[in-house]
Amino acid sequence: MAVEEEGLRVFQSVKIKIGEAKNIPPYPGPNKMRDCYCTVNLDQEEVFRTKIIEKSLCPFYGEDFSCEIPRNFLHLSFYIFDRDVFRRDSSIGKVAVKKEDLQKYHGKDTWFQLQPVSADSEVQGKVHLELRLSEVITDSGVVCHKLATRVSECQGLPIVNGQCDPYAAVCLMGPSRSDAKKTKVKRKTNNPQFDEVFYFEINRPLSYTKRQFDVEEEDVDKLAIRVDLWNGSNLKFGDEFLGGVRVPLKVLGQAGVHDAWYFLQPRENGNKSVKADELGSLRLNIVYTEDHVFPSERYSPLTDLLLQSAHVEPVSASAAHILGEVCREKQEAAVPLVRLFLHYGKIVPFVSAIANAEINRTQDPNTIFRGNSLTSKCIDETMKLAGMHYLQVTLKPIIDEICTEHKPCEIDPVKLKESENLETNRENLRQYVDRIFNVITTSGVRCPTVMCDIFFSLRESAATRFQVDQDVRYTAVSSFIFLRFFAPAILSPNLFQLRPHHPDPCTSRTLTLISKTIQTLGSLAKSKSANFKESYMAAFYDYFNEQKYADSVKNFLDLISSSGRWDQKSIETPIMLKEGFMIKRAQGRNRFGMKNFKKRWFRLTNHEFTYHKTKGNSKGEGALCRIPIENILAVERLEEESFKMKNMFQVIQPERALYIQANNCVEARDWIDILTKVSQCNRKRLSTYHPSAYLNGHWLCCKQSIDSAPGCTPCTGGLPANIQLDIDGDRETERIFSLFSTYMSKLVKMQEACGSKSVYDGPEQEEYSTFVIDDPQETYKILKQIVSAVQTLEQQHAQYKRDKFRKTKYGSQEHPIGDKSFQCYIRQQSESSTYSI
After folding, report:
1. pTM for this entry
2. Which of 107, 473, 716, 739 would staple 463 via disulfide (CB 3.0–4.6 Å)?
């Protein structure tokens, strides 16, 4: 969710690694150990909670959390809580990092001292105040002043124990006086509308210029309005302090009027002094980012340049590849690039182009995609985005079961507990590995189309480059789907949204052993035992040293790397995907044939869709109809009004449509999903279809009389629903612009490298050897366009900041007084404006 500003959207996001706590004070009892967990809070709003680490004063969490931040905030806070035997939670300490300080800790492992948690320090919200000073002449002719203080409203007050019944206490503070007044209590709201005015008489002339009045300056400095907010709902323990603000009267100036919003502050002496290490410390790694996104037209030059990357020859000269060259880490470039290309539906040609270039540079087929290149990082990110749902439906049930059962699976004799039996543990582990292997190798039909298309490209490129090696078409794909997709998800299910938290140590060890074995089973390496450094793992792998595992892996890889243009001879055995009884309508092959409905046994493989008269003829013999997968142009639901029948769908072929009725709505959805998935790679797929049948000489939906008339409704089977990603293309281009801007010096250095290589036409100088430059002239041309587009955007950002600085009012509702981050911004802009002048 973006914070909207004039002509610009601001996105805030945070990634946090919660490491460990140490030196937590012991529990005041004989046990002394604590059961602690950590929460992440925006101000006081909890947004994440770790698992409970039992019986420890140095709990290790090792948990990751990331989120989009949908609102403004002052602090990113972390609380350590202890849960006692009665399941009551008590706070031990907190870390509160001010928003303006987050960049100081960006991406660094940092130990923070825990600070005490007290009601006086737990403050949030803001208040709107109006002050007006007017002259009053008394009956005796003395000129006095009357101060009118309006408490208009508050927003975002803290809710204490589920309630908030706030009121405001207003007092004029000064020498020998403390006049206090209160508003009415507003029930059950943390956004109270008070709109009450309080008057304070000042018995002597008041001014801030010594020429008019003889008033000592130090006396004036002591005059202030104090407004405190209280929660009046706690009858048992008394009213609770919610926050306050002190406004010195000198803000009135000569006009005598002041109108502003203020952030509420804690009491000045609210925190007790605590010695260092008394509450312990917490290790955190925080990455906070803000993206300031302009309207789309501002990004068009850079976006167009990036999207052309797949078609630039050579691809190493393209804008996207250049980004990967200049970034410190390839992952920095891969994340926004993949999201941008996915958003515009161009990820497959881009990844295919950079993968083909990398394969052509690879000399040994055994080292294919071994490094952390831009290609491998982009494919990793694509799989993580497009394949998240695929992972969940494939692995989550069995991972949940493993984490719940806690079966012992340790097979290292050195780590074996006295109560455990090695053979029993091996059998437990073997069963888990077998089950996970089976769910993976039978899940090919659910693999997202975009992943299948990329795998097809990898397979073709590798097979063309290394024609002698018959297995390279498999290893090129397995190095990603097993090594970088399934194995990491099994190892760390919390990072792939398969589990809410990191597993306990015992389960984590089980998942590690499973992950190692699955990775080796999927690798199709010629020497399996050599993959294991540990002798106990090599011995365990002997259980699986059978040809059937290799065959299952190859069949699976064949299926997920097929792209509608497969050579059927390359897949000797058809893979059965789904079968069952359904009712179909005759297709009317004979001119005078009856178009009635009959029950048939349907069978779907990766080769064809067939139906048979009985279940017994489902081995491939005696099929009444065969529809090759490449002939399926679309699979869509059929409107009930067509035949007054529920749960109907249509399989559209070049000459006709096959109308089918499933037994129920769930089965209909499953058949539609799987048929759509299998046929989506067909390059002849339709973009439109008829949602109703062709009956009585016309289409019921659009009334066209020609049976071959183009469809009247867009097809729904573009991308599978599980990869319809919520991606903001402009935001990703803004991130790419920020990276180019950050690494501008490297862009300039790369331009120099192009000149050097072009002029001397010899080996690159050592300082330029880190860049891949296949065509210096083309690379230089693209670099020049990148620099121009980035500089234009930099000027637009700078102009926006200058305009905002001129328009923004400190003390407005959006930027209340007391916002330290905004004060820092004002100071920076003031300095930059002065410098530019």
Report:
1. 0.73
2. 473
